[in-house]
């Protein structure tokens, strides 16, 4: 897929850019080179490559620093609800705000 000068003019118009002829030609060359690289990348067969969870995983083992999913705080619901204006069955009651 190669862009034309008309494409560059349309893109510049949409982006509200004023490009002179030199800038337009330079933009055309740069974008077409970019699309060539994209086409080369799309041509590579990656069907046998295992996806990585992190780029560094390709060169070293990664250990995720996650903590255990355990409750560490005590249940203070009743104490927290003592100052609430209205409570029912352990839930805070609030005025209806949507009709």
TrEMBL record:
InterPro entries: Asp/Glu-ADT_sf_sub_c, GatC. Pfam families: GatC. GO terms for molecular function: ATP binding; glutaminyl-tRNA synthase (glutamine-hydrolyzing) activity; transferase activity. It catalyses: L-aspartyl-tRNA(Asn) + L-glutamine + ATP + H2O = L-asparaginyl-tRNA(Asn) + L-glutamate + ADP + phosphate + 2 H(+); L-glutamyl-tRNA(Gln) + L-glutamine + ATP + H2O = L-glutaminyl-tRNA(Gln) + L-glutamate + ADP + phosphate + H(+). GO terms for biological process: glutaminyl-tRNAGln biosynthesis via transamidation; regulation of translational fidelity; translation. It is an enzyme of class 6 (ligase). Its EC number is 6.3.5.-. It comes from the Bacteria. Keywords: ATP-binding, Ligase, Nucleotide-binding, Protein biosynthesis, Transferase. Signal peptide: none annotated. Allows the formation of correctly charged Asn-tRNA(Asn) or Gln-tRNA(Gln) through the transamidation of misacylated Asp-tRNA(Asn) or Glu-tRNA(Gln) in organisms which lack either or both of asparaginyl-tRNA or glutaminyl-tRNA synthetases. The reaction takes place in the presence of glutamine and ATP through an activated phospho-Asp-tRNA(Asn) or phospho-Glu-tRNA(Gln). Heterotrimer of A, B and C subunits. Belongs to the GatC family. This is Aspartyl/glutamyl-tRNA(Asn/Gln) amidotransferase subunit C. It comes from Diaphorobacter ruginosibacter. The lineage of its organism: Bacteria, Pseudomonadati, Pseudomonadota, Betaproteobacteria, Burkholderiales. The gene is gatC.
């Amino acid at each position: 897929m190669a862009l034309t000068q008309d494409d560059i003019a349309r893109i510049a118009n949409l982006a509200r850019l004023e490009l002179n002829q030199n800038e337009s030609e330079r933009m055309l060359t740069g974008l077409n080179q970019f699309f060539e690289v994209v086409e080369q990348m799309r041509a590579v067969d990656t069907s046998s490559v295992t996806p990585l969870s992190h780029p560094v995983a390709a060169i070293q083992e990664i250990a995720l620093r996650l903590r255990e999913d355990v409750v560490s705080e005590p249940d203070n619901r009743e104490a927290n609800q003592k100052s609430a204006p209205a409570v029912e069955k352990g839930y805070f009651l609030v005025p209806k705000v949507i009709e």
